[in-house]
Every structure is written in C-alpha cells, then in structure tokens.
Amino acid sequence: MVLQFATGYQRLKGKHCLFPFGFHATGMPIPAGADKLKREIEEFGFPPKFPIEEEENEYISKTNDVSNDTKIENKSKGKKSKAMAKTGSEKYQWEIMRSIGMENDDEIKKFTDPQYWLTYFPPHVKRDLEMMGLKVDWRRSFVTTDFNPYYDTFIQWQFHHLKEGGKIRFGKRYTIYSPKDNQPCMDHDRSSGEGVLPQEYTLIKLRIQDDFIPDKLKNHCTSDGVYLVAATLRPETMYGQTNCWLHPNISYVAIPTRDHGIFICTRRAARNLSHQDFTTEHGKFTVIAEFLGSELFGLPVQAPLSSYKIIYVLPMLSIKEDKGTGVVTSVPSDSADDYAALIDLKKKAQMREKYSIKESMVLPFDPVPIIHVESYGNLSAQVVYEKLNIQSQNDNEKLAQAKDEIYKKSFYDGILLIGKYKDQKIADAKKFIRDDLIVSKEACIYYEPENKIKSRSGDECVVALCDQWFIDYGNESWKEEARHVLQQLNVFSDETRQSFEATFDWLHEHACSRSYGLGTRLPWDKQYFIESLSDSTIYMAFYTVAHLLQTSYDGHQNGPANISPSEMTIDVWNYIFFADKSYNSLKTNISKETLDHLRNEFQYWYPVDLRSSGKDLIPNHLTFSLYNHVAIWPKQEDNRWPKAFRANGHLFLNGEKMSKSTGNFMTLIQAIERFSADGMRLTLADAGDSIEDANFDEQNAEAQLLRLYTFIEWVKEVLDISSSQTNNQSTNQSYNCKQESNDERKSMHYFDHVFESEINQAIKLTEEAYENMLYKEVVKHGFFQLLNSRDNYREFCSGIEKMNISLIKRFIEVQTLLLAPICPHVCDYVYQLLYPNKSIMEAKWPTPGKIDQSLIDSCNYLINTVHYFRNRSKILTTQQNKKYNVAVIYVACNYPRWQIFVINQLKIFFKENLSFPDNKILSSYFKDRQEIDKKYAKKVMPFVTYCQQLVKEANNNINILDQHLSFNEYEILVHNQQYIQRSLKLDELEIKVIDEEDTININNLDDVIPGKPLIQFFSKSSIDESSSSSKLNKQ
User: Are 813 and 827 in contact (CB under 8 A)?
Assistant: First the structure.
C-alpha cells in the first residue's frame, strides 16, 4: 500500500504519476503446485480421496522423499508429526485450492498445467485490487516468463548485456541445492529458509587406528584408512583436542569416498558430502555399514595437531543430528561444553561404566592450554565454567551463556600459545592453520546450509558443488559501482542502509540458472531457465513501454505499436533504452517514429522514483537491482539509476504472525468486506512505519471505520447548517455557528485563530510525513490530531464564542485532501459534498497559511491547565463531599532566584557536553549551595528533572530554559476566563500574578513557576472555611 499512498500524494502535488502492477510468475512455486496436484491425482484418483489422519505420515514420507539413491526411513511413530502440525488443515495442494474458494474439481484439475495458473489468477488479482481502490495503469501489466513473449525478449536483452559485460560466468560453485529438483535453490525457490547461506566448515579427519577398525568395516578397509569426520568452525583450536565426541543414540553411517578413505558421519552429512564431489558418483553415496554412536565408544583415534598422540571416542549427550556431521572434536580448554562433558566423565564412574569407557581413556586427558584470552587466562573454558557454577553438560542455559561470553572474545582477542603460528592472534592464524591441514590431507573443506532449508517441492536442501551459470556479484569493481548507486539512493532509514551495506560485504556469486521451473531461457544455453531473483531486477523499465507492445498481460496480442515479439531484437531494445544509439544502425522494419515513441516513453518515466519491497528482499532482490542498473546504465549522468527504495516490515494480524494453521489469517477481500476498502487502508496506514513489522489490529480497524462514518455524517450535518444559514432558515441549535460574511477575519476570535493555525500546522506536518513515507505519522497529524483540534474548537465555541462556518469548511476541505491518498473513496465523496460534481482527483494539495506556534502552545496550555483544574475539583469534591464554586488561580511570571541559578548551571553543564551529567552528579553539585535556601533543598532535583524534560521535548534545545513559554500565561488565562469558569462550573474566578516577594499564606505557593499555575478552590457558602489547593503538574 505504501506505493499507492505515495502515488496519491504526489498526484495532489501536481505530478504525473505512474503506478503499474505486474505478475511475477518466474521460478518454482507454480510448477511445484502443479506437480503436487498431478501426484495427488495419481495417488488418490480423481476427484482425489485423501487418506485419514493415521495414513498421513506415510504420504508425507512419499511426497517428501528427497533422495533417489539412499532412502531415509521415516521413523515417526506418532499419528501426526511436529512438522505436519505446522502445515495447517490443508495438507494437500487440492485442499489448498479448495480453501481459496475453488469448489469445482474439474476446475482444480486444470491447474495441473502450470500455464493455466498464469491465465487464471491475474484477472482475479486485478478484481481484488480494484475493490480496494488501487489506482493502477493496468495497460502496462504483464506476466513474467516466456509465457509473455515481449517480456521474454526483454530479459534476453538484459542477460545478453550482462554476459557481454563479463558479469555472468560458468563454473563449479558451492550453492544451496535441491536434490529432488536437481537444481540450485535460491531464496524464492524455498518454502522455508529464505536468506540462509552455505556455511563453510573445516572437516577434521580423525583416523581410527588400524588395529581397532570395527568388524563391520574390516572387509572394506583400504590403505587410505577409516575416519570419523568432524565439522568445525575453529580449526585453529585442534591443538587442544583431548577426545572425540559421539552421541550414543544417533545413527552413523560409513561411506567410501573418492580420495579420502572411509568416512563415518550421520546420514544427513553423507548426503551433503555426496553433492560436494566426495563420493565417486555425484549426489549418491553407498552405505557400507551403520552404527549407533555407542558402538564406537572407546575407539582410539589419531587427531591432527593434538598434543596427545592418541585420543578416544567418548559420549556426549548434547550433540544434534541436524547440524554438522554428528562427530565433534573436544577442546575443553576453550569450549565450556567440552569441558563440562569431560568433567562429567572424569567425576562419574557410573557414567563411564554405562558406556564401557575405561579410566585410561578419560582421566589422563586434561585440557591443554592453547589460547590466551585476557581476563580468562590460558584455560578460558575452565574459568567461565567455575565462574558460572556450571554443574554438568545438561546445564544448557549456563553453557549457552558461557559460549556467548568467551567464544567471540577468544577468536578476536585470543593469542595462540602453541604450534607453528605461536604468538599470533587467533583471527589471523585460523586461515593458515586450516590451509596447512588441507595441504597435509588431514582435513577438507565442507559446506552445509547455515540452517534448515526446504524447497518448494518439500525437499530438504543441501550445499552442492556443481557446474552452473552465476552472476558474479563478488566482482570488486562492479561491487564498487553498485555501492555508488546506493550512495545516491534514498532508503528512508539508517537500518535499511546498514542492511544494504552488510549485503555488499558478503555478497559473491549468485546462481542464476535453473533446469526446472518457469522463466526465460538463457539466450546462449537454452537448457536452463533464468531464476526468479535474476529476471526481476530492472523489470521496471519494461513497464514504460509495455502498454505499446501488448494489449493483454500475457503479450499474446500486439499493442498499439503493432510490433511482433520476433521484431524485438537486441538492437531494437538498445535503441529504446540507450540514448546514444542511432536509428540508422538498426536492421529493422519498425519505423523510426514508432521506436521514438517507445524511447520517449522510457525517457519520460525513467528512472524509478520509488520502489517498495519487503525488508527480507534487501539481501537479494533489491541489492541485485542496484547491481543490474549500474551494469546496464553505467553512466550516472544518464540519470537511469533508481532514486529511492523503501523497505517495509512484515504484516502481523492482531499482534501475531499470520498463519492459516492457527486461524490468525485474513484475505484482502475479507478485510474489505468487514471494514470497507477505506477502513482497511486507514488501518494499514496506521499499522506501522518503515522497516519495523506492522500490525493490523481488527479492533482498531472497527474503530477506524466508525471514525470515517462519523466524519461523513458530521460533514453532512455541518454543510446542511451552512445551507440553511445561507437560506436564512433556522439553524440546528447543537451547533453554535456564526453566519458567513465578507468581513470574517475581523470578527475572528482567539479560538478561530488557534484552529486556523492548527489546520495550517496539520498541512505542514502531514506533508513532511508523506515526503518521508511515514504513514502512521500521516494518519496521526493529518487525521487524528486534526480531528482532535476540531473537537477542541467545538468545545471552546460552546459559550459566547461561535464557530466560524467558513473556517469549518476550510477544515473539511483540508481534512479531505490530507486523507485522500489513504482513504480515496470517503474523501472523494466528502469533497463532492463541498464541491458538487467535482472529483477530488482534480484537486491539489492544500497550501498552508501562517502558523502561529505561540497561539497553538497557548491553547494546549489552556487545555491541559483546565483539564488538571477539573480533575482537582472532582477529587476535592469527592474527598470533602462539598461543592466548590469559587476559585483563585495564582500565576508566576518569572522563576524564583534559586531556580534561575539551577537553570544557569544546567545550561553550562549541557553546553560543555551536549548532554546533562548523571543525576547523582547533579544532586551532589546542588547540595548545600549557598545560592539555594535550605527550605528548597528537597525541591531542587524535581525541578532539575522538570528542566531536563523541557529540553528533551524541545529536541535538546537548551535555550528553551530561558523562556519556555512562547506566550503570556497570565493574559491567556484572563482572556479565556469565561471559558475556564464555564468548564469548572464556577460562579466566581479570580486570577492573580505572584512574585518572589509575595507573602501570601498559601500552601505550595513556592512551587508556582511559569507554566505551572496553582488553583485554590472555595465554597461560596463558607468562604472562611479551610481551603484546599494544589499545584499544576506538567501534563
């Protein structure tokens, strides 16, 4: 919606605005959905008869089978797995289609053809968006992929230039990969794990001594040896190995490798290894033996770099099967987890006995000092273990705390105490030690996903080393050019810019080709499709000419330019998008006039003024767009780089993530039907700003709908009164309005001027919020606060003062224009009540008049003061069961001398440090000062706090302490004495000015300072009785 709000605002500012809308169909989601439907028909017939709950696990196992080489058993014993519980009630694609309103099975069957999705959904999406009032130039809409032949040629043109410019290369790269789909799996190809990257590990080879190789492997042994392989992020700590850990109940497999002998690891790790060319056949592994971890306990192994010649395999209960290889090297000197597990085994004989571990395998092996960490010494794990009083390896929270405390400090600040790179910082030595281990063939490079990733087809992804076409985003010169684009880009928040900068730091190659899915085929290698994050980086340029090339979103009919897709050659696209290309250089039958029309459209609308996307697309989609713009249009002076990207957060519903499985879900149409289009739009605008997640609250939506309805009814009533006044008819007595005249400004009273300034201020503040795309602020200044100003004006004018009907009309017009981009339907309706037969689409943004801030401040002061007085009156009346109808207000024009001293000292402190010292320092400074009478000692710090608050509210303007009131407090109270008296229901009211020399005997009189008057209530019938008073606190 943010783009729609921005478009509506810019139109009011008199700009020509283009808001197009396309349908991105590239990638795996659609074919994956179509394939699921096909499988369900094959499995369950047509129409499908789905299994009951007890059979679900079996089906999930079949449909989620991720390997065609070695099957992984589904060992779930329950009727419903945890993963299934999260999928919601629709577990089959067929049921998902039904859940979105498709009741006809014959209709659903058509979706087994991926192309049918592309013809069915765009018209339905368009209908729904039109219902919410989206102002789109639908002539320019298109579907991506080769389904639209015009867009297909556009993407081929783009990739032609990327390859010609050396931006695309071919080779082996580690990438996230779906074995089931047999292709790389990038962010948009995933059902979960978006943003997860390959994680590099060093695979440490722990060789089992030849005489102790398990019987199951003796017939398979070679001279290359048998290894337990442990994946580590810290190869530099291998000097401190004291043992090897396995989990007793995890299943481990032994697999032969191409060059490294036999590896023992988890089946999951074997699957990853097979896709990284460790096995003879890529993507396949052979299990020659399988063990429980407990079967391998006590085996002696040789650990690279360890100070111990032989170490032993021991049990650790915290190892997880879904991370690493399931084999863990133990470095108890620097890992609190390792230290805790080792101490458990040393201290607990029963534990050793349970797993048949001999004392000689544990007791002689003490932690080896290998890294010095300041404040922790040479055995940091032992120090933090004792510091946190960790009891065992099951003390999970404290162990996690220990890791947080020492892990990074050890890596970045630690000094190596041993080995070839002794005395070097760990961060510097790590790479050298890793490389040495690899050269000596004691370790290998191994990758796996940082976290679990599921492809759209339900496959758990691996990291694969595979041949692929990739875009070389790691190219340093290109990266620097893209950074230059970012520098001139408005991103609206520091957090967004930091996210872009962080992406530039890690971004390298990106696989851009797929063998499965929908998309445009690579022009030079037709067996591959271009993936979804790569064919949507400069698509905005296609919007500028799409309406001339096609008459429908699928591009199957020629547009007004009467150009066929086959005529859209590389040279033709060059002429349209590159100003330096001449028509004479083209080989085309398209007329120059026609091509100039397309070129002019592009040059008129480009560059992109604003693009809005989710914050999760910063690390890929949006950053790629910057790279591609500078690759296609490298010269900044050509003015083709995007001007602004606005990233937004995700949308929550009622404070929780939207999920069909929990029932916390609402479709666009449901929201429109419940809250109306404008009620929904207003709630979305008020839901949250910038990169933070927004929250659509249903109760708030109901309240917004009521506000809009009430506003419309009030406008009707006011305009009816205005009409009746014009016709000299009797007015509605509920409105105290003065008739319109030509001499209205001379007859405007104080509250008229205040309301006028507040209207002008609302225009200014709302305009600033629109410019910064802060729509919650737009709603705050341009609707809520403006309505509040109107309500205050109505209350003020309920006595002898009357409302100015012209000013009320001005308010209605301004309110309507400020809110029009958010609530176009309501605002157009109200605007036509003001100006019959004239649409708000013809209107312009209102021009603010003079803003008298002192008037606004004085009115806010008056409102807060009267509100406080009213509350005090109610409290006193309740407490003393007496009606008070007489009052005296005491006002101070100046601060007393002791407060002036405090203010001057605070100003000195602030100007020295641009902030205030700690309150303890201030309290000590002002204690026993001769400038402050002892009777005020207890009031000093409350006054200091009051001054600090004033400065904070003035955006750290310390000069606010000189004279923080922009108006004459006494004059405002006297001028509005009748309003105060009426509000407090007083028969008599007196207002007095006091100064420091006054000797009036009243409690708390010393606390009266500028902006904080004091009121004393009396009962007229007993004026001589004791009275009660209280000072006004800051509201």
Answer: no
Q: Are 201 and 448 in contact (CB under 8 A)?
A: yes
**Residues in CB range of 1032: below 8 A, 6 or more apart:** 865, 868, 869, 1012, 1013, 1014, 1015
**Burial state string for 320-335 with b = 16 or more CB within 10 A and e = fewer than 16:** ebebbbbbbbbbbbbb
* Model confidence at 572: pLDDT above 90: yes
* Residue found under tokens 């009030």: 714
Q: Let me know how long the chain is.
A: 1035
**Half-sphere exposure of 772 toward its Cβ, with a 13 Å CA cutoff?**
15
Tokens describing residue 33: 């959905």
Residue 883 CA, chain-centre distance (Å), reads: 56
| CATH pick for 198-445 out of 3.40.50.2300, 1.10.287.70, 1.10.3720.10, 3.90.740.10 | 3.90.740.10
Q: How many CA atoms lie within 13 A of 723 on its CB side?
A: 8
Query: 980 with 972: CB under 8 angstroms?
Result: no
- The CATH code belonging to domain 1-20+655-724+748-851 is 1.10.730.10
3-state secondary structure 784-819: HHHHHHHHHHHHHCCCCCCEEHHHHHHHHHHHHHHH
What does residue 184 show for φ and ψ, rounded to 5 degrees?
-60, 150
Q: Is 892 helix (H, G, I), strand (E, B) or coil?
A: strand
Cα(101)–Cα(643) distance, integer angstroms: 41
User: What pTM, to 2 d.p., does this model score?
Assistant: 0.76
Nearest by Cα to 549 from 538, 566, 562: 562
807-825 residue pLDDT tens? 999 999 999 999 999 999 9
Amino acid at 37: L
Q: Taking a C-beta distance cutoff of 8 angstroms, is the pair 823, 682 a contact?
A: yes
Residues 6+ apart with CB under 8 A from 934: none
DSSP β-bridge partners for residue 892? 994
Three-state SS for 397-456 is: HHHHHHHHHHHHHHHHHCEECCCCCCCCEHHHHHHHHHHHHHHCCCEEEEEEECCCCEEC
391-422 pLDDT, tens digit each: 999 999 999 999 998 888 898 899 999 999 99
DSSP annotation string for 486-508? HHT-B-SSHHHHHHHHHHHHH--
| Domain 137-171+469-648, classified CATH 3.20.20.70, yes or no | no
Convert 27-45 into a string of H (helix), E (strand) and C (coil). Answer: ECHHHHHHHHHHHHHHHHC
Assess if CATH 3.30.2320 describes domain 863-894+963-1026.
yes
CA distance 573 to 568: 7
Helix, coil or strand: residue 526: strand
User: Rounded distance, CA 545 to CA 542, Å?
Assistant: 6
pLDDT in tens, 243-259: 999 999 999 999 999 98
User: Which tokens sit at 947?
Assistant: 């001054």
